[in-house]
Amino acid sequence: xxxxxxxxxxxxxxxxxxxxxxxxVLDIAAGLLAAEGPAALSMRRMxxxxxxxxxxxxxxxxAKDGIAAALYREGFARLRRRLDAxxxxxxxxxxxxxxGRAYRANALEEPNFYSIMHGEAIPGFVPDEASRAEAxxxxxxxxxxxxGCIDSGAFRSDADADEITDTLxxxxxxxxxxxRGGHFPGTLGEARFRTLTRAAVAAFLP
Length: 206
Fold this sequence. Notes:
By secondary structure, the chain is an all-alpha fold. It has eleven helices and no strands. α3 (43-50) crosses α4, α9 (140-152) packs across α10 and α10 (161-180) runs antiparallel to α11 (188-202). The longest helix has 21 residues, at 64-84. It holds the Pfam family TetR_N.
């Protein structure tokens, strides 16, 4: 079971409406998946931990496959909210760097969702086209920041914002994956993240 008290979390969410209930259930499901593996994603198991009926889960998610899709989408939705909350800066390059730091912070603070978003935490689950579109949209603010760097002259005028976004995403994900795997302990993860993302950015400098 997750280390937190999921039943009390679910009870508190009930007073806040269906959106809060949905988020609470997804937190519980992500925690169960990380602690017990894919077999824990049964309606009965999740209902028992949440302290609700299976009827509630079927109403919210339809079936077990619906839970998997909802977990995937929720992970990227949380990432998008985190990136959207980064204060805008008059310096396009610094704003882009701040988005990178926020991406890393989100990955480390939401490890259960991050695994679902980028790995094979749920065997056999393949996101549908709509889910993948939502995932891509979560990085729209990063694409806009990349365009800002091009327009300001911080990046080459012939650089492509989508390529910049994909390159930085791949670099960030690679180093974060190693950090989460225990290869970069302590402050080493942050240092390696900074070095690698700077190296990725260098490819687009004038």
